[in-house]
Amino acid sequence: MHPDKHALTDDEDYISRSEIKRQMEALKHLGKRITDLRPDQQEKVPMDATLRAAVAETRRITSNGALKRHMQYIGKLMRNADVDAIQAAIDQFDTASQAHNQKFHQLEQWRDRLLQPGDVGNEALEAFITAYPATDIQQLRQLIRNTRKEIEKQQPPTQFRKLFRFLRDTTETTEE
After folding, report:
1. Burial level of 45, CB count in 10 A (0-12/13-18/19+)?
2. 74: which DSSP letter?
3. Closest Cα partner for 58 from 67, 49, 50?
4. Rounded to a whole number, what is the largest CA-CA distance in the chain?
5. For residue range 23-45, what is the model confidence (pLDDT) as tens digits?
6. Cα(first)–Cα(last) distance of the chain, in Å?
7. C-alpha–C-alpha distance, residues 168 and 145, integer Å
8. Are the C-beta atoms of 70 and 58 separated by less than 8 Å?
């Protein structure tokens, strides 16, 4: 064997072709996860205009071969993207991710605290309004009242769910 053959492997910056392929496959997979999101969720993912246009174009493609080539293209565009920021944004929507579960539990805690009777509920309401000043206070109070009545009458949890959706929407619009 020629003595210079291993000269490349001693270099710290050397990356094998297999590793490069794995990285490219990971970028393509992340791009696929972006295309699987709903359009309103895709808007919240930090991407440049070219990548955003390519993701939007994916909805129009029906041919499997064309879709495969397009996913390769998205993977290529992902090389220039802020992968960590994109991953963090996707994790907010991925129901299997810890970030999503943590946010979900936090919203459930807000809802439960807001539904507490008396001063505990009022303090929670004040805390929520302070944390999220853009809240429609009148609508929130109405939802809380309706949900309390619903629980009292042991009705199906329609208002309970509406309150949760309101809290989710309010917290998402504030985070943008």
Report:
1. buried
2. H
3. 67
4. 85
5. 888 888 888 888 888 888 888 88
6. 59
7. 18
8. yes
Q: Which position has the token pair 């064309």? A: 66
pTM over 0.90, yes/no: no
Q: What is the pLDDT of residues 116-170, one digit of tens each?
A: 888 888 898 899 889 888 888 899 999 999 999 998 998 888 888 999 989 888 8
DSSP for residue 45: S
Contact indicator for 110, 67 with CB cutoff of 8 Å: no
Domain 98-175 belongs in CATH node 1.10.60.30: yes
Amino acid letter, residue 126: E
Alpha helix locations (H) across the chain?
7-10, 17-36, 39-42, 49-58, 64-78, 83-93, 98-114, 118-131, 137-152, 158-175
CATH fold, domain 3-93, is Diphtheria Toxin Repressor; domain 2 (1.10.60)
